[in-house]
Predict the structure.
Amino acid sequence: MSCEKNMASKLEKQKDCIVFSLLDLPECTLDCILECLSPLDLCRVAQVCTYLWHRSRSDALWEKQIKQKWGGLLGDVALQEWLWHTSKIINTESLLLKQNQSGSCGSFSGVWPFLSFHSYLENFINLISLFKNCPKMALYICLESGRFWFPVQVYKTANLCCYDAIVSYDSRTDTFQARSPTGGWRMIEGNIQWDRLRLSPVETSPRIFYMSNCMNDLKPGDQIEIQMRRRKDSPYNWGYAVVGHLETCDEDVNHCHCQYSDMLVVEFKQYQLENRWRRSVLNRNVYEEQGSRLSWFGGIRKLDKEEEIERWNNLFASSR
């Protein structure tokens, strides 16, 4: 009997309670709640009713989701490529639907066989409506599903260099696969971890010489990135190096004049001292490609940011 009385008492109390739903909340409060949800939960909320369907697809919500997961890799160049794709798709929607294509298109420049791919969007035909009405949500979905191949640079630990690529995400393994932007869209490698990717620090194409503005300031001990390639018809990679001393210098800081010489010593410390790849001597006053049949060198970036220097030093330590 006491159990029945307790149950009856609880029921009486519930009658006096006022029940609120999400729809009763002020818009700003609802938005705060939606901002705390994961992308998957936002999609679930969208199935509740028409009002929440619209609220959970807002660009502001999905912009935040993009920044949280993709902000470190998705730069201005990639976003420009995305806008190029979506604008083209929206403007040619009727033609795409008429041709009944699954939907794939690439952005490229140059002429065959020297085409350079800038990005690629595949299997988008069922997302055209989303492109028009919920562009930020569409971008997140295309990144997460691996449909959008976007430009980044990939660290190569063995050679202490970075190469340009366009990559696609694999959500099953939380890794990336990379294709060459040059050389016929060939696959370079897969299972690439997040920490091996970075935004390109320059807007120069990997086939173009980078015009340096630091050549006369470089001195021994400065850490740099330098454009490198083995063949003149290949794209440049960015290699990590340190400015060294001339052979005539005793490396005494009180007597060193290497900074004022026209010749610049570049040292690749991943190689042993006796290795022919260890040192190269370049002319500071030559603003074009220099080198020999062993290797060709382009422009130089001086590393000033501690984050960049630390990343290269960690790669160097792990390669030994």
The chain is about 30% helix and 25% strand. The CA atoms of residues 121 and 148 lie 5 Å apart. The first strand starts at residue 104 and ends at 109. Residues 76-91 form the longest helix (16 residues).
